[in-house]
Design a protein that fits this description.
3 strands; 6 helices; 115 residues; 2 domains
């Protein structure tokens, strides 16, 4: 079976850990390629490649300032990722609630035994 292109959709693009690191960094503020290189200690060609993929998928925006290109995240394009993961929030909340209930029950049992 043929493999789909890495950049075929947003989910494939952010599946790559380095791209997620770059998105995390750019979420803080706008940065140049050289700033990303320094902050993440990656090779410049690698950062440029990842930024190109992120830009092609519209996950980051770029603007020129003199000789530099500054990148920033595009929150609107990231929103589908957020919306999809949010569907699982109920599961996580439910699991955390169950853990809390068990911990409180164990604490009550311990208190009752010592009383």
């Amino acid at each position: 079976m043929a493999r789909c292109a890495v950049s075929s959709d947003v989910f494939n693009v952010v599946a790559e850990p380095r791209r997620r690191e770059i998105l995390d960094l750019l979420a803080e503020r706008e940065r140049s390629v050289s700033e990303v290189v320094r902050a993440l200690r990656l090779a410049q060609p690698s950062v440029s490649k990842h930024l190109r993929v992120l830009h092609e998928m519209n996950l980051v925006r770029a603007r020129r300032e003199g000789r530099h290109v500054l990148y920033r995240t595009n929150a609107a394009a990231i929103r589908p990722l957020y919306n999809w993961t949010k569907t699982f929030e109920r599961y996580w909340s439910h699991q955390l609630h169950r853990v809390k209930e068990r911990a409180e029950a164990a604490q009550r049992e311990k208190h009752d035994r010592n009383a």
